[in-house]
Amino acid sequence: MPKKFELAKKNYVRNRDIATIAALMLVILLMRLSNEVEVISRAPKIPTRLVTVENIPKTLHSRRKPPPARPAVPIPTDEETIPEDLTLEPIDPTFFMESDDDGGGGEGDRGLGAPTLTPPRPIAWVIPEFPASEKKRGVNGEVKLSLEIAPTGRVLQAVVLENTTGSALCAQAAVKAALASRYIPAKEDGKPVTYWHTQVYRFGASR
Asked: CA-to-CA distance for 184 and 177, rounded, in angstroms?
């Protein structure tokens, strides 16, 4: 072991010089090779797709017509406020076609040339509330009322003509809704008059 150590110690300087010379030669060789090699950079090719469109329809540009004017709804100013617990719904014109009113006018006891009578028209229609107890019992039927409509359009009174539901609560709900509704009053020769109007309210499955 001491002999090997002594030998390595003697050859240390020589081995160091040999390694230094070899490293310098390798560096010089690499530098010469880098000068001779030409590096060419190329941008990657991106494939392109050609899309062809045939028979393109012509687009016609035109101005849109302005919307029609919104019709004004007459609302009487001397009416009472409708209770907040009642529900208002859009009016279905066919709902009133089943009325028993004949609309007045024509040939009657006044003969030809009688005054022209225009029946009332609803402007605030109140739907009666279906009592929860009656709905739970499965009550089904109609309540037929006769409404006295004043020249102001208010309903003065509501008389029950027929009640096929057999429920007093349903009849009360129908009367309450009728009294809260508002109408354009009936007119005779253009003047508002009192008018009796027959109206039917449905409860249950047929409602």
From this structure: 17
